[in-house]
Each structure stands twice: as structure tokens, then as C-alpha cells.
Write a structure and sequence with these properties.
With 217 residues, the protein is of the alpha/beta class. It has helices spanning 39-46, 67-71, 89-100, 104-113, 129-141, 159-170, 185-191; strands at 2-11, 14-18, 22-24, 28-32, 53-58, 61-62, 74-77, 147-151, 177-181, 194-199, 202-204.
Length: 217
Amino acid sequence: MIKINNLEKKFGDHIIFQGPSLEVHNEIVGIVGANGTGKTTLFKCLLGLSDFSGSIFIDHLDVRKNPLEIKNKVGYIPQYLPIWPDLELIDVIKFFCKLRDVGIERGLFLFEQFNLINHLKKKVAFLSGGMRQKLSIVIALLSDPAILLLDEPTANLDAWATKEILSIMKSWRGEKCVLFASHRLEEVRIISNRIVQIDDGRFIEPRLEDVSLEFLD
């Protein structure tokens, strides 16, 4: 569960959030908004990587007071995961399994599930965009977190890779608490249980059928 109360955030004189509140349970909530409205900043606040006023609770834990506990409960999938390009996938997964304190068996199981098992000796530099994004998802799922944050998960992917990633995301409906940002409105309609638009520092919840390109104007 994610609970945001009276979130306030600004950079200098520029106000990003001016008091919105939001609760997300076991559902997929799509975040939409024009560039610069604060989608990535919202994720940084949720991860405790950016200061803010108001309060944010994740699984009933205060983000400010329990940063380490929360990191173990949240899987974060950025638009682009910076991983050492010369590492082979087997070394990447060993590193993150150790970091997450899970056995390598968990990593190999997810590699099998996401059709990466035959690429263990491939270097990160030679992964396609879709494979790289699936690797990001595997890393995020290592500790089987109940909460997932996805920042533009299908950006720069081709149609086939996008379809595969969306299918993975759709399987989380009703099972995990998911917030994801996307500029692709059709994706938002297909995947989300709810949509939240960031507009002028506030959260607006339009009906799924009402979401159109005007929300990005």
C-alpha cells in the first residue's frame, strides 16, 4: 500500500506538488502528465531520494523514518537502468542477488520466466532494448516486492518488446501495488485500474475512457 498525504515539493520558486494526496492498494495506477509535471520527481519522493513536505507511507512505514526497510519492499524500474556494459548477465544477477540477500536460484528462476536464461553469457552491451528492460524487471522482482514503481517502462522499445512488457505488467493486476508513468496513453488505458494525472501540482483522476491526448497538452 502507498499512502501520500499533502505532498509538497518545489525547486526554487517552481512548485512541483502543492498538497495532493493519493492511496494505492493492490492495483495498477497509471501516472500521466506533460513533461516537467513531476512524474519522475514523484518516484524519487517515494523512494526517499528527494526531500518533500507532507507524508508518504509505504506498507505503513514512513518513507523518511524507515528508508532501509522500505527499500526491501519496493521494486523500482527506471526508464534506463545504468548497468556496467562489459558485465555478463550471470555476473549481473549474482551481484544483485547478493545485494538483495536472495539466493542465485531466485535470479535464475526469474531469468527462466522472462526468457533470459539462454543469454547468461551475453554482455549487457549487446542486449536489445526489450531484453535490457526485462533485465530491469528481473532485478526489481528479486526480493518479490509487493510494491513496484515503473518510470516509462516501455520507452524506446519496439512494438514486440512493448507487447511483451505490457503482458508481464498485466499479470500483476490484483497481486501487487503498482505505480507506472507512461506517455503512451493506450498503454495506460489497457493496463491501469486507475489513472492519475499530474496537473498544476495536483492529482486528478479522470475516467479511463476520458483520457486522451489533451491530458498531455
